[in-house]
Amino acid sequence: MTTPAGSLSESFTDEVVTHALVRDVALPGGAGTMALITLDNGHDHTKPNTFGPAGLTELAARVRELAARAEAGEIVAVGVTGKPFIFAVGADLTGVPRIDTRDKAREVARLGHEVFSALSDLPVPTFAFVNGAAMGGGVEAALSCTYRTISSGVPALALPETFLGLVPGWGGCWMLPNLVGPERALTVIVDNPLEQNRMLAGPKAFELGIADAMFEPADFLAESIRWAARVLSGEVTVERTQAGDGPGRDEASWEAAVDAARGRVLARTGGKALAPLRALELVSAARTSSREQAYAAEDEALADLLMSDELRAGLYSFDLVQKRAKRPAGAPDKGLARPVTKVGIVGAGLMAAQLALLFVRRLEVPVVMTDVDSQRVEKGLSYVHAEIDKLVAKGRVSDDAATRMRGLLTGDVDKAGFADAEFVLEAVFEEMSVKKEVFAQVEAVVSPECILATNTSSLSITQMAADLAHPERVVGFHFFNPVAVMPLLEIIRGGATDDATLATAFEVGKKLRKTRILVNDSPSFVVNRLLGRFMSDVGRIVDAGTPIEVADAAFSGITPMPPFHLAGLVGPAIALHNNETLAAAFPDRFTVSENARRVVAAGKRGYYTPGPDGTPVLDPEVLDLFEAPEKPVELSAEQVREQVLEGLAQEARIMLDEGVVAAPMDLDLAMITGAGFPFFNGGLTPLLDRSGIAERATGGRFLPRGAASVPEGPTT
Amino acid sequence: MNRPRREVVFVDGVRTPFGKAGEMGMYAQTRADDLVVACIRELVRRNPSLPVEEVGDVAIAATTQTGDQGLTIGRLASLLAGLPNTVPGYAIDRMCAGALTAVTTTAGAISFGAMDVAIAGGVEHMGRHPMGEGIDPNPRIIAEKIVDPSALVMGSTAENLHDRYPSLTKERSDRFAVASQQKVAAAYEAGDIQPDLVPVATRHAELGYGLATADEPPRPGATMEGLADLRTPFRPHGKVTAGNSAGLNDGATACLLASEEAAARLGLPAKMRLVAFSFAGVEPEVMGYGPVPAAEKALAQAGLSIDDIGLFELNEAFAVQVLAFLEHFGIPDDSPKVNPYGGAIAVGHPLAASGVRLMTQLARQFEQQPEVRYGMTAMCIGIGMGAAVIWENPHHADYRSDIGADGTSTQTDAPSENEEVTR
For residue B58, is it within any domain? Predict the structure, then answer.
């Protein structure tokens, strides 16, 4: 096995090796000696333990030595635990982009199986003491032991593989359903990953039956070892009431659980995500397959998925939201940022009130909200107060924190309260003249350095600042609705915006816990421009004769919802406004749908309406508003998809050429965090690259081969 | 107002195994506060009938109250142990008698009626906090000869004690030390030590996690010959060696105290009843003599004589200092009444932690020797002090609980004004 693992090491050149440190411990009560393995990569908890080829090989060597010692009667048990706060968070994926053959991919799977099987096959009982975060291969290492304890302080236990585009392929798809039954296993293997990669806290994992005993973190390991001693002495008998051999083990019940999960997966992914479906197959087979059969199937599944562009794009996406999101490209030195100790918000409408809530909650500074009359101000304030009450009811903020938040928020019709604010954000009607007037009024009150931020979704920042005495203090600060949920914040640099203003905006955005992307002033910025192009092309195609249902069926697995559902969610009027702005700016590429105009003119709030059984159906009144073209051109869903993606490729290329953002990665990060585009497409550009659309429509790829896709095989 | 004294009982005591201080010691990378937390949690676990919110105070001693022994360690350790935040806590320092003072101070508060139940203990991680860390002696100490300069070096005070009592030879010290090692080994063999040890997970960055389940310092193979040639670090050709002294150690202890009434009400055992305690000062340069006047004061308070004491748990900071006590009271060096499980020379002396170890061991000996009515825990204290605590054995035939059949104190009814309290 040295050769294949050795060749893997070439891919994992940067592996931070998780060492397997072994010490003997005397089991309390004279129960004998336990060899205790500590998984520790030598870093603190900010760099968690992961399993790469070198780490797995080291663990295998230690397990072999322990097998010999167990045979010799020197040890009566083997324990496995992690370093402080971390058990192990799974496979080291840093080398995956360099895996260029299926054999190497398969070797990743095989090596893990080999090592964890050896752990399972030790001739003495094995105990996993899950002291901290455990994910993926870390959970599988624990599952490979005879018994498990878990700390009630574990913040996160998960099998997140399907979230990234993999399956739990080091035994997880076989061991977990056989331990806790298929239903609970599938919650962990497919449902939680699809639920924004939800993690289980220690008590929940214990409740699911993933661990046999739970202890508090203060003396978790010592108590776990005492418990192990009592298990070994027979004083404690482990009973697994939820075990997969209960009722539910019969084929019908097992398959019913798998089918139910499949239904949930298809509903969420439209069948476009391969990994969860593959996991379902493995869990289905786990009922009857032997370990050898199951692990061979996992090897093949992992090899297929590791060599899939979906997985590579998933890893690329993960890297974007984990790393690029934390270090926004092009952001100025944060040392230039000025302190913000008071915030003004112009407007008290729904968006403004959401922003006020966010600022008092995250920035914890006084926030003054203004509007044209006291009734609107009152309405805005009571919205925020009601939201604070909801947060208290959900236990998200304490009573004291709520009191503090309420105290920080004031409202007024007069902007005089902005005088000592360092940051004023306007969220008024989306109309250039209104916004310019508002900024002029604010400028009359505030200091010359006070930042004037605008939450405009499409208007020019440069133009908005043009007539001010200090245009350098104006910056775009574009949130997405609902503000509390959507992570993205587009920070827009206008023509005059200076670095101090920009740096302050980035720091404020960070404190608001948003994913910040630097955008150069341009119509509709990033997400609304790309979605605008998308809606413009879809509208044009539908106006030309393709039925709405066909257009809506064309984008499953690409957009989080079909285009006309999206238009309904955003609001036809707002979508139209964005469309008009873009059509005015780029008349060569953007058109305004006449049908959309009619829908807005008719005051419709959406295209769909709840049908008799509650599922949405196209609103007949909307259909009546649609005018059929003289010579209808009816495209297939496939053609719609192709044409619209070509348009997106063209628009993305133009945006990069114009310097709207620094790199394709920023477009993708924006579409993932601002529009909910899926990980397995890498947001947008990896999808355009791998489908060949990028080359066809724009003459080249956005990203080099291998960056978010499988690299070309070895040239030899 | 004439209020009766409330009786105080020692309910239970535990300790961590003691480690050798320093990089090679088993607690080298384990925090001091975590050692205390392990003890408090074990006490709570062992006494499930105790409602933790009824703990009136948590007093934890440490000599060096900084770093992981700082931040008002009694309070922080209590929170870290998971006691409710309504339970207060504080830190105590009386050098080697820290934990002992934590016991007498909280016992005083219980007796006064300020609380019903207390946790008292101590910790010293001498690896992380070497003796004398960060001290800043006032220059007047030397200028005005307030304290002999040698008084600040404990080993030198032990040498001074040999000077003062020439009959206390190095040979006697070494013999006492060898016996201490042998008694500890025998006590381990008999299982007298282990039941009151709480295992502690010991993390080491390079070695991984381990589990401390037994004391690290004992040298069961120690012999007179082996001890004879050891270096005398405090004086050329002196008498005090690493062999006849306690080492530098890491460890923690904690115990549960309660009023006799509360113990009965909560179903907590009374392993010992507090009879009297006393502290006394002596010349700092012979601090090891401190237990002698302390014991005499305590005996006088209790109306007892030294012959009434059937068991002694004397801290063995230095063999010579124990011998000085024994010689004063006419007790043979090898008396079976003294340190039957051995002492600090073998198991170690993590300064402020040791006092409760003495009590925990005495409590177990009381159970094993019901014929003994009274026992004493005593120790010497740096800068010239001594402490002595006298305890009564509830297993003794003549023991009378102060609690009537109805669970109330028999004294609360009508103590006559001039009734002399004797016990």
Answer: yes
Q: What is the mean pLDDT of residues A90-99?
A: 91
* CATH code for the domain in which residue A58 is found: 3.90.226.10
Residues of chain B with pLDDT under 50: 411-423
pLDDT value of position B408: 55
CB contact under 8 A, B208 and A38: yes
Q: Which of B264, B202, B277, B246 is nearest to B351 (CA)?
A: B246
pLDDT at A620 over 70: yes
For residues B79 and B73, what is the distance between their CA atoms, to the nearest angstrom? Answer: 10
Cβ contact B208–A36 (<8 Å): yes
* Chain A residues within an 8 Å CB radius of B199: 28, 222, 225-226
Alpha helices, DSSP H, located in B47-90: 73-80
Gap from A515 CA to chain B (nearest CA, Å): 35
Does A37 lie at the interface with B, CB-CB under 8 angstroms?
Answer: yes
Q: Structurally, how many domains does chain B consist of? A: 1
Question: Does the pLDDT value for residue A472 go beyond 90?
Answer: yes
Instruction: Say whether B333 sits in a helix, a strand or coil.
Output: coil
- Residues of chain B with Cβ-Cβ distance to A225 below 8 Å are 199, 201, 211
Do residue A203 and residue A244 come from a single domain?
A: yes
Residue from the list A22, A25, A84 with its beta carbon closest to the beta carbon of B203: A84
Decide: helix, strand or coil at residue B409: strand
At B254, is the secondary structure helix, strand, or coil? Answer: strand
The residue in chain A having the minimum alpha-carbon distance to the alpha carbon of residue B80 is: A218
pLDDT at position A269? 81
Measured in degrees and rounded to the nearest 5, phi and psi for residue A460 equal -75, 125
**Are residues A544 and A513 located together in one domain of the fold?**
no
DSSP class per residue in A631-688: S-----HHHHHHHHHHHHHHHHHHHHHHTSSSSHHHHHHHHHHHH---GGGTSSHHHH
Domain that holds residue A413: 334-520
Segments forming the whole domain that contains residue B288:
8-129+146-392
Same domain, residue pair A511 and A531: no
pLDDT at A576: 92
Give residue-wise pLDDT tens across range A585-600.
Answer: 999 999 999 999 999 9
Given this model, what pLDDT does residue A716 score? 45
pLDDT for res B3: 75
Helical axes A527-543 vs A572-585, angle rounded to 10°? 100
State whether A280 and A147 are in the same domain: yes
Alpha carbon distance A621, B182 (integer Å): 98
Q: Which of A152-156, A341-345, B397-401 has the lowest mean pLDDT?
A: B397-401
As for the ipTM of the complex, it is: 0.93
Rounded Cα gap, residues A244 and A176, in angstroms: 9
**B384: Cβ contacts below 8 Å, ≥ 6 apart:** B147, B151, B281, B282, B283, B284, B285, B286, B287, B290
φ, ψ of residue B155 in degrees (nearest 5): -65, -35
Give the residue on B whose Cα is nearest the Cα of A221. Answer: B201
Are the Cβ atoms of A23 and B207 closer than 8 angstroms?
A: yes
Q: How confident is the model at residue A29 (pLDDT cuts 50, 70, 90)?
A: confident
Q: What are the catalytic residues of B? A: 96, 349, 380
A545 and A507, same structural domain?
no
Q: Domain for residue A352, yes or no?
A: yes
Contact B211 A36 (CB under 8 A): yes
CA atoms of A308 and A300, how far apart (whole Å) = 12
Mean pLDDT of A627-652: 96
A590 with A651, same domain: the answer is yes
**Residue A397 phi, psi (nearest 5):** -130, 150
Number of domains in chain A: 3
Q: Is B371 on the interface with A (CB under 8 A)?
A: no
- Reported as type and span, the H/E element at residue B389 is strand B385-392
Asked if A464 and A436 count as a contact pair (C-beta separation under 8 A), the reply is yes
